[in-house]
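Hi V.,

You were right to ask for the full record rather than a summary. Here it is.
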Amino acid sequence: MGRAHEVRAASMAKTAAIKSKQNAKYAKAIYVAAKSGLPDPDVNQALKKEIDKAKREHIPADVIKRAIEKAKGGQGEAYNFVRYEGFGPGDTMVIVDCLTDNVNRTYTSVKVGFSHCGFKLGVNGCVAYNFDSVALFTFKGHTDEEVLDALVLADCDVTDVEVDEEYVTVIAPQSEYAKIRQALIDAFGEIEFDEDETTWLAHEQVELSNPEDIRKFRKFMDEMDENEDVQNVYHNATIIEE
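Predicted structure:
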């Protein structure tokens, strides 16, 4: 199916909570982005990025608006970004990114989730070296040659451009995110991105075919889904079922 298919599959495998929890997670991310600069997406690119992600996930407009208004108020929670890394069945690796107003609570809940599912929580950096932090874009309507030409003309540093079925996938160093996004919009107008984010991609995927390993892995993802402090889960697992 190609590298682009793997990228989309890995992205889709990231944690997604039930709708109420999903709303809370996106509201938190929008609030933090708005607090990091001016609460105006026209001048705050981090905020615009989070709003665009929320819209793609069909987060209600009033949820987005309330998060921005809360940031404008000046008072509110102080959130910290924390990352946890560890190991799952079959030599799989996971990275769990969180936003929290209580680091001790989050650490305890994530550690319990790892333990319940037979995972092992490691130290910072224990698996991240097996992943690349990248800017990722997928969209329809253009050829790889058209996209690559536009990015070269804009002097963008690109790792890969590939077409798989009707999708174009662009992978680049994370530092190139804003530059590439603007170059694509300048070249092709307002694009409806299917993926538009910075993410972690594993160097190699690990296939899970043992039913017990698959059960443990899915249980882990479910537990992370239910944790409102967890924003994203990245991993190198590919589930193989007969």
